[in-house]
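Minutes, project check-in
Item: structure for the 125-residue chain
Input as provided by the requester:
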Amino acid sequence: MAAYSDLVVEHFQHPRNAGEMPDPDGEATKSNPVCGDRMRVMIRVADGRIAEVRWQTRGCPPAIATSSVASEMVTGWDLERVEELTREAIAEAVGGLPKDKVHCSVLAADALRAAIADYRSRRQA
């Protein structure tokens, strides 16, 4: 764990917003076939903003930490801002990641975008 920032270690050891969400407004699961990391994210939306995020991640410490940090970051953001969230912003928010672990932040950003897409498709149905 020495290669990781204190924030990565903190969020890995004490993840925020982990767990199930009954009847989410949108949800998505993304995985990385190379390393096997998998993230399921569930969102609740109110007034066009992320009101709540829950997630379940199976993977390495940075995958869990970036899931936790991303869930805190986007709470209160409008949907368009979340859709523009980059992997670099998530990696920066955790104090940086080793090059071989940046894919963890990609997983969180992609899962959040996919959950918003699911939310929008449910509203149109």
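Outcome recorded: Strands lie at 26-31, 38-46, 49-58.
No further action items on this chain.
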